[in-house]
Fold this protein.
Amino acid sequence: MSTDLRKSLSLPMLIALGAAGIMGTSWIFTASDFFRDYGAGGEIFGLMAGAVLAVCVALAYAELASRYPRAGGEVVFAFAAFGRGWAFVAGWLLLGAYVSSLAFYVSATGFLLAELLPIMSTVPLYTVAGTTVYLPALAVGVALCIAVWLLTSSGMNRAGGFQLLLFSVMLLIGLILAVTGFSTGSFDNFWPAFEDEADPASNIVRFILPAMTFLTGFSLVSTLAEDADMSHRKIGIAVIATVVVAALFYCTVLLATAWLIPWQETAALNDGVIDAFRHAGFPTLAWSAFAISVLGLVTSFVALFPAASRLVLAMARAGLFPRAFARVGPDGRPGNALLFTLVLTLALGWLGRGALLWFLDTGGVYVGLAWCIAVLSLYRVRRLHGNVVAPFQAKPFWLPGLGALAAICVIIVILVPGTSMSLIWPYEYAILGVWAVLGTVIYLLAPRRTEHEMRQAVLGNTGDDE
């Protein structure tokens, strides 16, 4: 019986899973806060700069994914470069980030729908971290989680097709918002893009940190590489295309919002892009912007859920998780890994938005560290197998290192107490510590397999590691 996943994702599906997985919900609402704190120029130009640095890191992912088109992304890269230990570190970090995000979506779904359906905020169940969890909201989130599990379990071709449909709708709505903003607004509403007393360069640099967290989802493409039905080079292209498409979408809609009415007025509103279009006299388009946020939540769920299951699959292949999670059915689907992902998500999803924000914040640290591991893996693999040319090559060679350096800066700013970007003391620091200790215990208890067996299971027939 084959142990490989069924290849069913087309290039448009793979890009949609990656890009729509990046384009989540919060940015639609937070435009008011970011315009106020950084100026319209700080957010938009900072996003552009963040996108450039994200592309630098994505180049490493693109080359490695084209070289090792196996489920698990960073787990596979780290295993090929450094072995079992680093593979566990990479996988454990990302599993924490992915499952935290999925659990947050369970609680955030009902909260978002409460804008339309006040019933979502009735029948209080309990309060965690200052946030009340309501029965209808929790029920809707659980239902969405189960629906995504059923969708992805039915085959990635169906999940990819559904994602492509939702992504197309998001792009269409974004285009309508952009055309309306640029055609009815004025450049004078956007420029000057900073407050008179503000330092433009400082605001742009300060926003690079949150901008890079907006663009972290490109690694989903490499995690789903084994599901891709295309040449290895196209997988690398899909990684880069994912960042570019998402960044263009962000910047275009935000610039159109700043163009529509004076951005200082948007900064004084509550719900960012939504309120800007409502304030400008376009209530239908305001609801369309809200629709983007709802679609963004669903598409992020559809992308992250199978990606998390592929991390579980890759770690089981390496003997880091029970063998049962490495099982692939005759239909080419990792049923046990998908079910385990469902259980993990629901196990955290009941906590509510307040507590899950702690987990979500720590996920930024995990992703940044995973970026660094991937870049180091690229340089190590090149050193080990320099005679084997990857289907997609990162050029020039120093660019991924520049992106990794930026990721390190993000991590330092987040971990050092007392900054505006610091983790919340003591809860989020405690979560980091507990996750590290739990990972150490699991790694030490994991049964070891022979080196040949692990390499064959994790890397498959990928060329330079046969």
User: Anything to note?
Assistant: The mean pLDDT is 91. The first helix runs from residue 11 to 22. The chain has one domain: 11-459.
